[in-house]
Amino acid sequence: MKHLPLEDIKNFFSSLIKRPTWRDEVPLFATENGKPLDRSQWAERVREYCQRAGVKVTPYDLRHTFFDFVSQTQEKIGK
Q1: How many Cα neighbours within 13 Å face the side chain of 50?
Q2: pLDDT at 77
């Protein structure tokens, strides 16, 4: 498994479309209409954001990088 450089993660997230102000029941990963994204929509959106940011990231990379970060953080704070 590859770990993503912090700069690639920053570039990826800075390229995300700003979401409008929605009610609390709208999911974090939603379509432009506030509906939940399915797996293929999410993968397509990740590809689009990567092109904008000039990085190569997959949903798998994001998931595992996040897991590693959370695991390391919990070890440091003693949980």
Answers
A1: 14
A2: 63
